[in-house]
Amino acid sequence: KFFETWKPEYNAHQETKGNCDSAGGAWSIWSDWSLCSSSCGNDGIQKRYRKCFSDQCLIEFDVDIKTCNRQRCPVQADYYTTLWKCYYWPPVHGQWSNWSTVNETFQNETTCPGKLSFATRQCDSPTPEYCGMYCGSSSIKIDIFPVDGGWSSWSGFSSCTLSCGSGTQYRTRACDNPASQYGGKHCEGYEREEKSCNTNPCPVDGGWSSWSGFSSCTLSCGSGTQYRTRACDNPASQYGGKHCEGYEREEKSCNINPCSAWSSWSCKHCSKTAIRTRTCHHGCPSKTTETKEMCQIESSCFPDKVISYNTGLWGSWRSWEYCPKGTWVVKLQTNIESHQGDGDDTALNAISLRCNDDVGATIKSGSTNWGTWQAESQKCINGFYGGMLKFESSQGSDDDDTSTNAIRLICRDDNQWYRSGEGGWGSWTQSTYCPAGYKIVGLQTQIESDQGSDDDTSLNGVRLLCRYFG
Q1: CB–CB of 413/382 below 8 Å?
Q2: CA–CA separation, 399 and 396 (whole Å)
Q3: Which tens digits make up the pLDDT trace of 321-354?
Q4: Residues 315, 449 contacting (CB under 8 angstroms)
Q5: Can you list the domains of the chain with their CATH numbers?
Q6: How does the entry describe its membrane topology (predicted)?
Q7: Which of 94, 146, 368, 421 has the fewest CB atoms inside 10 Å of its own CB, making it the most exposed?
Q8: How far is the C-alpha of 247 from the C-alpha of 433, rounded, in Å?
């Protein structure tokens, strides 16, 4: 009876503290039981093992222990001595020795980078005696060394968020080469990288300014007209944006009250050879409706007016050219040099204006060696009375100053802007008009000659001559 209670029987599942379940692992089947450590008596034990794998990587080790062969041993000479010692001496319980560690790499470094620490210990410090207890818990432990994360390669950059005006695009990478495991450090740095793209300015459509005040009435009686203007500069169109829709000039009737019998003289200050006239509206003597007389004052009734666009910094003014007497400009044609893709883009190089005489005379006031003559504008039968230029200011370098790039003229027929070819740079100047009753008849241009180097700005300034036709 004493022998049966000497050391209790046990069946201990000595499970490690690891991460099998939390790491998504799976246990292997148990190994076979080892041979019993003793053939009889009270000290025999058996062990079996199993392993935990996650994605084919070993991450856990488990031990199961049980007692075995607990039958009496054959009686030996010291048997009763042993029983006597167990009865009279205090039991010596077993204690574990220190862990004996051997580092081993159990898995493929490519797919399972974690290194395992495999350690064992023995129940011999001291060994159990005099009915003492065997050591508890496990004689084997496994620790997995931390795995620091590593970056994957960068992905390609995404599409730009904007087509113009400075958008962004990004690329990404993942901390999975390898992923951090078992308490290892996460990758240092950023998972996302951005850069600017499509930094070219977006097109800006033109917008109208406020209307100006109305001009003075053209007549003091008998229904005259007065006009007001506005400019496409709020903002001006840029970077390929649309020009304003609608009219820059608006007219209305004024002084519609009937005139007295005789109107005022048509001009008050005339040259010696000019004639002034007045018209009878009612109560005319001898059915005369108009009278004429020679002017006596040495000055013009309606002197010519000049519209000047002194926009450029370079070149010299060429000679004035005029339509034949009594005629005016009815068509516009431009000489344009296309984009050269390098240091020189002269754009507008010359202007040709066609007159409405019998032979269709043209006036140019100078030209250059570059560019191609574009198609003429449609015909403005009643003549042009104003214009505006597209102008690029100095770019501050030696390579390129395109200066004047395009011109448009406004027609009396329909108050529409007529044009020929146009260059691609610069902004439109504010439109300028002849006085009421005037039409464009002359042209003077400012042209820079060939510089023999990287920059030929060509046409820089334009002056238009307005003449009164009533």
Answers
A1: yes
A2: 9
A3: 999 998 999 999 998 887 766 665 667 888 999 9
A4: yes
A5: 92-133 (no CATH), 305-468 (2.100.10.20)
A6: Single-pass membrane protein
A7: 146
A8: 13
